Amino acid sequence: MSNQQNKKNVQIICNKRALDLTEELPGRQEENHAKRQCTEGLFWPDSDDESIFSNAKLEDLLSGRKDELFGTQVQTSSNMMQSELPDDGLFGDTSFADTSLKLEPAGTRAAADHDQQIDLSGDADANEVFKKINLNDLSVAEMEDIFHGAEDFSEPLMQNTQLFLDAVAFKVLRTPEKLNQSSTKGDESMSFISKSVLEGIVQGTQYETCEELRNRSILDPVNWESQAFADFERDNQERDNFPSKGEFYGLPDKVKRMILEHKGIKSLYEWQDECLNLPAIRQRKNLIYALPTSGGKTLVAEILMLRELLCRERNVLFILPYVSIVQEKVSAMSPFAIDLDFIVEEYTAGKGKCPPQPRRKRRSLFIASIEKGAVLMDSLIDVQRPHEIGLVVVDELHLIGERGRGATLEAFLTKVMFLNANIQIVGMSATIGNLSEISSFLNADVYTRGFRPVELKEYIKCGSDLLEINAAGQTLDEIFVPSRSVNYPYSEAVKKADPDHLAGLISECAPEHCCLVFCPSRKNCENVALLLSRIVPKQKFFDHRRSEKIDLMDALDKMCGILSPVLAKTLPYGIAYHHSGLTTDERKYIETAYRFGVVTVICCTSTLAAGVNLPAKRVIIRAPYVGQEFMTLCKYKQMVGRAGRAGLGEAGESILIAQSKDNLQVGQMLFSPMDKALSSLDQQEAVGLQSLILSVIGLNLAECRRDLNRLVNSTLLSVQASTLEVAVDDIVLRILREMFKNKVLQVTEPLGKSKINCSEIITTQDVNQTSARPAGDRRLLIGQSTRFKLTNLGRAAFKAGIDYKRANAIHKELRHAQQQLILTNYSHLLYLIVCFNSNERGDELFPADASILFQVYTSLPPESQALFKQLGFTEAHAARLFKKQSVQGPLSLQLNRLYKVLILSDILDLLPLPNVATKYNVERGTLQHLISQSIAASSAIVRLCEELEEFWCYKPLFERILHKMDRCGTLELEPLMELPGVKINRAKQLYAAGFKSIEDLARIRPMLLVQSVEHMPLRVATEIVSAAKIILMKKLDHLEEETENLKVCLQSSSKD
């Protein structure tokens, strides 16, 4: 069969579609990949000769010192350059016959090894080039970090295939005869890696209702065959009364055209059509659907959300895990909102009004982080408006098992379920190992499908050997299939610097295709990026999209305020790093450049696997660690899932680099079941369950122990109680006792004139177990039907969204500060905000640097030193701080807090973020996180003070500081900074270009904005214009609502 026919068959199998979205558009022409003019449909050009940004002029500005910055440059073209100049890089003039990994029969392995080697026959001095590689500029610390910080890397080449197979032989495999016998019995042990890897994601299609999952024993064999629609019409179950408005899943045909226009999607995959016609969708039941990463889950969710907004005319709440993804989705949905006449609202940190403005004419899509989504729902319940929400969609549902945030998500979903307000819940995830338990918790049907639009080939690198993972194998030889050996002609120096052949593996793929390198730590990301920039084939990487890389560096310098020294060295070669130490803007520029092939290699941490949609042709896992912890199967699947996306070729490739010391753990990880999402409500002294109980009492969803037991028994914790070995009812009783003792709860019924001793709380169970009490010993009896409510402090804690212990602590700080509040500057208020987020040592996020703290303190004017003195910091303490150069002793808590206060003060004084980062030796991204954390704390303190009359004076003060910190701009720039993603540098740019208000931006066409503002990509311009229009739509809605209310008042008065 010809190669062309093979490719055609693969295309049919992998990209099978159920519904064609393409329509004949008037005047439509075939795409032309030649050099073309910038149009509204084009973000970045494909040609190397064109700029990323339409009018960037850095090349002209730097023409006098280009050689100094980037070395000798040659003319580029849209194809890979074949340079005539000598290359002093690692590989010289090298060529790669094939950029994909090949699986060859064992007999032809030697030939394959020879073919895969880099051809240096044309370079007579190749060996001399390798010998001259100079890595002396790498520091000892950098070299150690590149080697993962391990102690046993002195002999990295000791690792090989046999060592790995010997280590993973802990799994006793059986003969094919035994396998066949056990398979007829449904023996669970017959499955090997195929079962463990596919624990939560099945091959083919599976659809099970929550009732079937509840009745099926966990030991029953699962039928992995396609069975989704065999009994769709069983029992002729009545459909939901769905008001259809068109043929496209009930949506207007306009939606189909918009998906094609804005997303470039011509047709749906078969599974997407299948999922959108499930009984759960037709009957409006809760649904969980799970597919591998890159399967197209988000499009299904978006269609469901549009159906709810346009057809059922109810609001939608979309929960996303990270602020960056929330902002990205707000931007992506804005064009749909404008054309389809609904509102998109961002709910993150200080953004989003709670409760939201009620609207008669337009429906709202609330896109929120987990924490702010929970606050939004609480506010709607509090004002008796939860019915306005018709659909809740939760992305990355497996995060319900994460400590901290998982408890918040579980509590949120529990309340939505407990409300019984006809709110449908749809959850999606790629990695959940206990779908049946999550289904039981949400009372949801489950749809699973082992679908990927392109094939994923997974490899393990053992020394120089590459083993392909065959998940269907039954023996070690069948599971780990030898593919090839890599043999790059490294010099001795390069072998020591790059023992894992990263440069060679990357050069096989990049710069023609994109590559992600996952590293264990943030520092390792930077050092690996630096190393790669020094040893990859220089001319090949340097010439690729050169002018656009120059523009990218200029944009980072001007728009983000700084170009990182490491990025300045790596970006000329299309190599970058990506982690939380970079600011949001820096990460966004790098991500966008990567999507359009300007940056082709990103060294990143594991957060990129879950937080950002960046597909790659090849994914390399530098080491099987996330920080200091060994990675789980869930993390591994998230990372390798980034390899291979539709449009990036027929197959994606992932390579896990395994050192000999990690062989056993790598095997155990691969053979382990998918991570289970376990409730964390009972973790950390049950603070999650405390917060849930506090909120449901505050929202009047429960007013006695009977109500609480009914609610708590509907949590995931209750479903998993036997597995986790927890007694849920006992935990609830303990929490109630603590709440009464801390005066967070009080009994509703009058208890006579006698004063209650709240330190002696007993329950009806205690009465049965207690013998005679001393006479006169007063106790409070809490029966199953005893009604109680929150005290003022308890309600303040609930409104602030914090547990009562934190509320007690901040109440104490506020009351103490009230006696001698310093208002000559913002420092004292900032100190209270830092206290809100502080741990017991005050060193959360980062500890104080003693030398910097001393230098800044001594340079402060007397009025700014007043807070230090009030907290007990004297000249003697300052001298000790200078002498010991460490923050220790009784004032360590206060000093760590004051360090953050000094940072926030400089930020409020509009000192550029890069300058602040340099001054205090803190990463820019960490500072940005501190700002976001402080904004959320300010908002929570405002809500707390609203409930406590004694703190009436604080409310306007913290509202002002919240507004100032959220904007961090001057008065004239504040309107522009309402726009999502517009920071102070971009606001200054827009203001200087004549766009001084939201109205100015709403009137302009995106292309005109691109031409008027430097470094303004068309996509960003479109997002800004769309966001401006939505802000005006909100204002119009508000005015229309006020007008309608006034009309109603006038009409009623005239009737009277």
Automatic annotation (TrEMBL):
Stretches of the chain forming a coiled coil according to its record: none
Cellular compartments annotated: Nucleus
Reactions that this protein is recorded to catalyse: ATP + H2O = ADP + phosphate + H(+)
PROSITE patterns according to UniProt: HELICASE_ATP_BIND_1, HELICASE_CTER
Ranges for domain Helicase ATP-binding: 278-450
Keywords for the protein's UniProt record, in alphabetical order: ATP-binding, DNA damage, DNA repair, Helicase, Hydrolase, Nucleotide-binding, Nucleus
GO terms classed as biological process: double-strand break repair
Entries under InterPro entries matching the protein: DEAD/DEAH_box_helicase_dom, Hel308_SKI2-like, Helicase_ATP-bd, Helicase_C-like, HTH_61, P-loop_NTPase, POLQ-like_helical
SMART domains found in the cross-reference section: DEXDc, HELICc
CC per GO annotation: nucleus
Domain (Helicase C-terminal) ranges: 501-693
Main location: nucleus
Superkingdom per UniProt: Eukaryota
GO MF, one example: nucleic acid binding
Protein name per the record: Helicase POLQ-like isoform X1
Organism: Drosophila kikkawai (Fruit fly)
Taxonomic lineage of the native organism: Eukaryota, Metazoa, Ecdysozoa, Arthropoda, Hexapoda
Name of encoding gene: mus301
